[in-house]
UniProtKB/TrEMBL annotation:
<protein>
    <submittedName>
        <fullName>Glycosyltransferase family 1 protein</fullName>
    </submittedName>
</protein>
<dbReference type="InterPro" id="IPR050481">
    <property type="entry name" value="UDP-glycosyltransf_plant"/>
</dbReference>
<keyword id="KW-0808">Transferase</keyword>
<dbReference type="GO" id="GO:0035251">
    <property type="term" value="F:UDP-glucosyltransferase activity"/>
</dbReference>
<dbReference type="InterPro" id="IPR002213">
    <property type="entry name" value="UDP_glucos_trans"/>
</dbReference>
<dbReference type="InterPro" id="IPR035595">
    <property type="entry name" value="UDP_glycos_trans_CS"/>
</dbReference>
<comment type="similarity">
    <text>Belongs to the UDP-glycosyltransferase family.</text>
</comment>
<keyword id="KW-0328">Glycosyltransferase</keyword>
<dbReference type="Pfam" id="PF00201">
    <property type="entry name" value="UDPGT"/>
</dbReference>
Length: 434
């Protein structure tokens, strides 16, 4: 049996997809990953075969930097980073305006490249990143059965009256102007319509007899796999989803890191893990405020700097662990608190470890993800552009002394996610459906 995994050339996308594929490899099956060259090392580390496939202009081997991107993509990335400094609505507006180039890059040419990979690999099962729209066009138009995996918050697939790019929920710390929200909703509706027209134009070339879509953002594969705990998803919304399975989380294994292991063994003080992921680590101003806030607490801190220079954090206590990249899963297993941008990998890995979160969402589905965590009591959400060090310190203090009932529920969710991990759920569901 052969599994084909189709992923954009971004580490944050490939890691969870490859982790799902590890269940096939452990079962003695063949796994082939089709992705770009920047993430080739990740494919090799997992022990998979690889097919070269470029699904977009950009790439990210682990930490993204604008000056390492192709011409055009570098300016788009700088524009996105600048928008995050202006606020929630401004960031979502920027992302909506860039959506066509981001998500449906060279759709017909890319789709035909995907079809050539499928013909060469001849897989029994196919899983594809939900946001790889050109790849999903290829599979749907060629009649290739596949599961698409939503790696972000489930609202990345719109249902009912939702409009892609307009968050159906956001944390209470954000109070956007009503007029600005109306303008954003109108913009997102227009983008949906133009994006759907592009999808239908490409679909007509790839499969002239295929019915046109009324909303390309609401399209999904034969099976929808959501890398998210179903326990946090609203039941009414769940009933609107197409055939699906909640995977809970896809927590990857990590090689031992001697420096990190030694640091963890040095003290019994509570550990706070800080990371804004591979993209938002560029927001050194927010990381500096977080560092300033945590210096006043009786904790040891591990900071994954990403693109930020350590000099930008201010004085670093000798007891802290500060590096560009840190083994996130390992540190979450020992953490009392995670400070995060509320990206879905960080959220699901922290929930699996039973760690409460201080969420500072910047973009896209991070707002809906942080709102769900806040509603469950597992996080305090703050506006990263507005929260000062005293507010961050107060939130961290509150989370370090989580109410017993909330801690009990979080521990129960952690136990459930560990007992039935995402890779096993994905393999079992796909074999059962097949």
């Amino acid at each position: 049996m052969t599994l084909l995994i189709i992923s954009p050339d971004y580490a944050s996308h490939l890691f969870p997809l490859a982790t799902l594929g590890s269940a096939w490899l452990d079962a003695g099956e063949r796994v082939v990953v089709a992705s770009g060259p920047a993430t080739a090392g990740i494919v090799t580390a997992f022990g998979f075969e690889r097919e070269n496939l470029q699904l977009g202009r950009g790439s990210n081997p682990g930490v993204i930097r604008a000056d390492e991107q192709p011409r055009g993509e570098d300016d788009a990335l700088r524009g996105f980073f600048a928008a995050t400094r202006l606020g929630m609505v401004e960031t979502l507006r920027f992302q909506a305006q860039a959506r066509g180039a981001d998500l449906l890059w060279n759709p017909v040419g890319t789709a035909r490249a995907v079809q050539r990979v499928v013909e060469s690999v001849r897989p029994d099962h196919v899983i594809v990143d939900h946001l790889a729209f050109s790849a999903r066009l290829a599979l749907a138009s060629a009649g290739v059965a596949h599961a698409d995996v939503v790696l972000g918050h489930p609202t990345a697939l719109t249902v009912g009256s939702e409009v892609y790019g307009y968050p159906p929920a956001w944390p209470t710390c954000f109070e956007p102007d009503g007029g600005d929200l109306a303008a954003l909703a109108s913009l997102c509706a227009g983008v949906r319509d133009s994006f759907t027209a592009q999808w239908n134009d490409a679909l007509a070339l790839l499969d002239p007899g295929a019915p046109a879509s009324s909303d390309a953002f609401a399209e999904s594969g034969d099976l929808l796999l959501l890398n998210y705990p179903g326990e946090l998803h609203d039941d009414a919304r769940t009933r609107l989803l197409p055939p699906h399975a909640f995977l809970g989380s896809a927590v990857r294994g990590e090689a031992p890191d001697p420096q990190v292991q030694a640091w963890l063994a040095e003290s019994a003080q509570p550990v706070v893990y800080v990371s804004f992921g591979s993209f938002l680590s560029v927001r050194s101003d927010v990381l500096a405020r977080v560092a300033h806030a945590l210096r006043g607490l009786d904790v040891r801190v591990a900071v994954a700097l990403g693109a930020t220079s350590p000099d930008e954090l201010g004085p670093i206590p000798a007891s802290w662990l500060v590096r560009s990249f840190l083994p996130q899963v390992t540190l979450l297993d020992h953490a009392a608190l995670a400070v995060t941008h509320a990206g879905n990998n960080s959220v699901t890995e922290a929930l699996t470890a039973g760690v409460p979160m201080l969420a500072l969402p910047f973009s896209t589905d991070q707002f809906a993800g942080a709102a769900a965590l806040e509603a469950a009591g597992y996080a305090v959400a703050l506006d990263p552009n507005a929260a000062g060090a005293p507010e961050i310190e107060a939130a961290a203090t509150r989370l370090l002394s989580l109410e017993p009932e909330v801690r009990r529920r979080l521990a129960a969710l952690s136990a459930s996610l560990r007992a039935d991990p995402g890779p096993a759920r994905a393999l079992g569901t796909m074999v059962a459906v097949a």
